[in-house]
C-alpha cells in the first residue's frame, strides 16, 4: 500500500539566495520648463527597462511644453511605450483634452503607470465639467486599439488621436511593423495629426537597423520629417561601448499622414 504520508523534507525548497533579490523601486524627477516638478516612480528592475527615465522621454516632454499651444492644448494624445509616463503626465498638465498612457500589458508596468498618474493628479487641471484627462492602459503594439479609442470624447470607427508620442520605442526592431500598424489605427486622419518619434541610439552600431523604421512608415502611408537633434550633457549609460556623441544625441521626427492617404476613409 502506498504511504499517504510520504515526506519530501526540503527537497523542493529553493536554497536561500537562489533567486536574486528584487530591486526596490526608485524615484526620479523631471523638471518642467514652467518650474513645476513631475516626480515618478520607476520599476525596480524590468526587462523592458522601465526602471529608467530615458533621455528621449525628458526631451519629448520639453518639446511638448514648448509647443503646447499648437500641439497639445485641447488635443487628444496617445503615448506608446510610456514606461514611467512623463510625456503623458506633462501633456495632461499642459491641457490636453484626453491623454492615454500605455505600455506593455505587464501588471508591474501598468500598476506603476497608474501610480505615477495618481501621484501627479494634483498638477493636472480638471477638464471641462470636471472631466478626467489622463488614463492608463496596458497595450501590446499591433493588437486591437478599441480600448484606447474608447477613451476619446467621441469614440467610433473614425475616431483617432491628434498626437502620438513614441519616445525610445523604435530600437525594438522586430516590432517596427506593429508600431506602424498601431499608428495607422490610432492617428486621426487629418493633416494636422502627428506622431512624434524621438529616440537616442544607445547602441550606435544598430542605428541603421533602427532607421529602417522610417521607410517602413513611409510605405505605410506616412511622411517623415526630421525636426531636431539635441545633444545631451551626459550619456545615459556611462560604461557602454560605441560612439559617445551618438549615445548623447536625441533625434526627433514628425510623422504625418501622406496627402494621398487623407482622402481615404478612416
UniProtKB/TrEMBL annotation:
UniProt: S-adenosyl-L-methionine binding residues: 54, 81-83, 103, 141, 167
Enzyme Commission number: 2.1.1.-
Keywords: Cytoplasm, Methyltransferase, S-adenosyl-L-methionine, Transferase
UniProt keyword Transferase present: yes
Top-rank lineage group of the source organism: Eukaryota
GO cellular component: cytoplasm
Primary location group: cytoplasm
Cellular localization per UniProt: Cytoplasm
Pfam families: Methyltransf_16
GO MF entry, a single one: protein-lysine N-methyltransferase activity
HAMAP family found in the cross-reference section: Methyltr_EFM7 (MF_03223)
Function: S-adenosyl-L-methionine-dependent protein methyltransferase that trimethylates the N-terminal glycine 'Gly-2' of elongation factor 1-alpha, before also catalyzing the mono- and dimethylation of 'Lys-3'.
Protein family according to the UniProt entry: Belongs to the class I-like SAM-binding methyltransferase superfamily. EFM7 family.
Protein name from the UniProt record: Protein N-terminal and lysine N-methyltransferase EFM7
Gene: EFM7
Amino acid at each position: 500500500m502506498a504511504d499517504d504520508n510520504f515526506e519530501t523534507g526540503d527537497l523542493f525548497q529553493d536554497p536561500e539566495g537562489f533567486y536574486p533579490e528584487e530591486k526596490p523601486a526608485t524615484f526620479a524627477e523631471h523638471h518642467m520648463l514652467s518650474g513645476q516638478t513631475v516626480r515618478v516612480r520607476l520599476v525596480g528592475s524590468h526587462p523592458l527597462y522601465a526602471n529608467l527615465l530615458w533621455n528621449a522621454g525628458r526631451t519629448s516632454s520639453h518639446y511638448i511644453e514648448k509647443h503646447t499651444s499648437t500641439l497639445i492644448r485641447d488635443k487628444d494624445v496617445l503615448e506608446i511605450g510610456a514606461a514611467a509616463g512623463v510625456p503623458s503626465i506633462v501633456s495632461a498638465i499642459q491641457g490636453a483634452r484626453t491623454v492615454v498612457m500605455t505600455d506593455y500589458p505587464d501588471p508591474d508596468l501598468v500598476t506603476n503607470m497608474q501610480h505615477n498618474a495618481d501621484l501627479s493628479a494634483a498638477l493636472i487641471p480638471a477638464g471641462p465639467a470636471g472631466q478626467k484627462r489622463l488614463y492608463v492602459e496596458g497595450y501590446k503594439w499591433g493588437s486591437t486599439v478599441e480600448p484606447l479609442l474608447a477613451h476619446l470624447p467621441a469614440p467610433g470607427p473614425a475616431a483617432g488621436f491628434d498626437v502620438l508620442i513614441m519616445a525610445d520605442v523604435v530600437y525594438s526592431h522586430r516590432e517596427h511593423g506593429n508600431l506602424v500598424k498601431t499608428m495607422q489605427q490610432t492617428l486621426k486622419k487629418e493633416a494636422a495629426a502627428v506622431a512624434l518619434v524621438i529616440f537616442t541610439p544607445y547602441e550606435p552600431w544598430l542605428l541603421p537597423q533602427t532607421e529602417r523604421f522610417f521607410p517602413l512608415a513611409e510605405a505605410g502611408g506616412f511622411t517623415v520629417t526630421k525636426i531636431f537633434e539635441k545633444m545631451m550633457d551626459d550619456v545615459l549609460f556611462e560604461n557602454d561601448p560605441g560612439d559617445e556623441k551618438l549615445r548623447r544625441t536625441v533625434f526627433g521626427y514628425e510623422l504625418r499622414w501622406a496627402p494621398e492617404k487623407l482622402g481615404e476613409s478612416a
